[in-house]
Specification:
transferase; Glyco_trans_2-like; Glycosyltransferase; Spore Coat Polysaccharide Biosynthesis Protein SpsA, Chain A; 10 helices
Length: 284
């Protein structure tokens, strides 16, 4: 008998690609038939309408429209409002496609390794960094935010302890990796014991084209986001290690120190990230 599981998909301004991604996800579920919650958050385009059209064809698709454009808030919404409390939960980004049986494989892997709190997927071999990314996943049991599974018992503890990701958090994958590896700040930090890696749950992504002006702009914006992630994580994680879950802020901008890496190639992006965080503070 197949286990019960739910699939949560994050979608933000993906009107041109979300149907392709969802069809790919459905195909990758193999023999499983999950309910698919598409968290359409803060979209300024017609993503919700595209998801709704597909929901008329696939009854398993459940569109959820959220006004705030924030992935961490969308994660909180699914976990605390739509998760049924007992199923295996698989999470996926809506801007990807997936290899045959990718979702089925990650569920099957967990069925054989139920001691893990989380299971990471595996990137396809595209782009310059794919090979090193794969090696790091296997060596360090890192957490992949692109496609991952969270165990029912782990999610039950998250709900029971009222764990919410901070709104505005950049790098929900890094935070969930930390929470998984430490079993919700229990005093241990053992990713190899707590995070599995399913090498045949493969997701596809399009690497950036260095000759494309659009991709260059995307790369620069991404570098600023990476700097914000660095500042947020370097503030929040030490507090969690010291004080436990009670130190989790409601908003990611509520951080004390904006650490600029002056003697590095990150300095310009760090400065832009610091300015952005200060703007967020002034609005909150």
């Amino acid at each position: 008998m197949n286990p019960s599981f739910q699939l949560c998909v994050f979608a933000y301004n993906l009107e041109n690609t979300i149907q392709q991604s969802l069809k790919s996800l459905i195909d990758s579920c193999g023999q499983y038939r999950p309910d698919i919650y598409v968290m359409v958050n803060g979209c300024r385009d017609h993503t919700y309408q595209q998801v709704n059209k597909l929901a008329q064809i696939y009854s398993s698709i459940i569109p959820v429209e959220i006004q705030l454009g924030d992935k961490s808030n969308a994660w909180n919404t699914f976990v605390h409002q739509y998760y049924d409390g007992y199923s295996i939960a698989v999470f996926a980004d809506g801007d990807l496609t997936f290899e045959q049986n990718a979702v089925a494989n990650i569920v099957d892997y967990f069925q054989l390794n139920q001691h893990y709190h989380a299971v990471s997927s595996f990137p396809c071999l595209k782009g310059r960094s794919a090979k090193s990314w794969r090696a790091a996943l296997l060596k360090e049991h890192q957490f992949t935010g692109n496609l991952y599974l969270l165990a029912p018992e782990f999610l039950k503890n998250i709900i029971a302890q009222k764990v919410y990701l901070p709104t505005g958090l950049i790098g929900d994958d890094s935070m969930l990796g930390f929470l998984s590896a430490t079993n919700l700040c229990s005093g241990i930090d053992t990713p190899i014991d707590n995070i599995g890696v399913c090498t045949n749950a493969i997701f596809n992504y399009e690497p950036l084209n260095p000759t494309s002006l659009k991709d260059i702009k995307l790369y620069l914006r991404r570098r600023v986001r990476y700097s914000k992630r660095h500042m947020q994580q370097s503030n929040i994680v030490p507090q969690l290690k010291r004080y436990g879950l009670k130190a989790m802020p409601e908003y990611a901008a509520q951080i004390d120190r904006l650490h600029i890496r002056w003697l590095s190639s990150n300095v310009i992006f760090d400065l832009l990230a610091a300015w952005s965080i200060r703007q967020e503070r002034s609005r909150s």
